[in-house]
Amino acid sequence: MNIFLAVVNSILPKLLILIDLEGGSLLNLYICLDRCGAAAAGDGSKAGVVADYGAMLKGDKLVLRGLKFHGYHGVKPEERKLGQKFLIDVDAWMDLRASGNSDRLSDTISYTDIYGIVKEVMEGAPHNLLESVAQLIASRILSKYPPISAVRVQVGKPHVAVHGPVDYLGVEIIRYRDIDIQT
């Protein structure tokens, strides 16, 4: 099933978003800025498609899981004074064929460089919201590394005062270079 969302405004007067759904699950997301007729007609040609985000998120990626930091982010005074543990996951989508073929670090982005960005944000100036922390991490990664086309950042708090057992509570954002890059 295809869902079409046409957005008309002064900035992007011919924006069309085509969403492919199957059984309620997102299969693909296409963004068109002009000549979207073929994509909208469903003829498979996707003429005018600017970005195929579904395909982008199915490609190669660098993966950083279970990064642990002590930081002072949060709204409550005790979070700012005592700090707390945070768990971070990062996926960075980029083409890894060159490094896969060459076996050279110079043909990719080092995990430790991305880790360094996360560490700098997590152990740096405090933010009230995890959304702000995740956004800053994503923005810095996309700004520093042009080969990365999209980044997913998950920030979790494992020790949250709720009435029930949890592994963690947090946020997850996905940012795309061509529409979300912000410094």
Automatic annotation (TrEMBL):
Catalyzes the conversion of 7,8-dihydroneopterin to 6-hydroxymethyl-7,8-dihydropterin. GO terms for biological process: folic acid biosynthetic process; tetrahydrofolate biosynthetic process. The lineage of its organism: Eukaryota, Viridiplantae, Streptophyta, Embryophyta, Tracheophyta. The keyword Methyltransferase does not apply. It catalyses: 7,8-dihydroneopterin = 6-hydroxymethyl-7,8-dihydropterin + glycolaldehyde. It holds the Pfam family FolB. Residues 62-175 form the Dihydroneopterin aldolase/epimerase domain. GO terms for molecular function: dihydroneopterin aldolase activity. Pathway: Cofactor biosynthesis; tetrahydrofolate biosynthesis; 2-amino-4-hydroxy-6-hydroxymethyl-7,8-dihydropteridine diphosphate from 7,8-dihydroneopterin triphosphate: step 3/4. The keyword Lyase applies. Belongs to the DHNA family. This is 7,8-dihydroneopterin aldolase. It comes from the Eukaryota. Residues 1-18 form the signal peptide. Its EC number is 4.1.2.25.
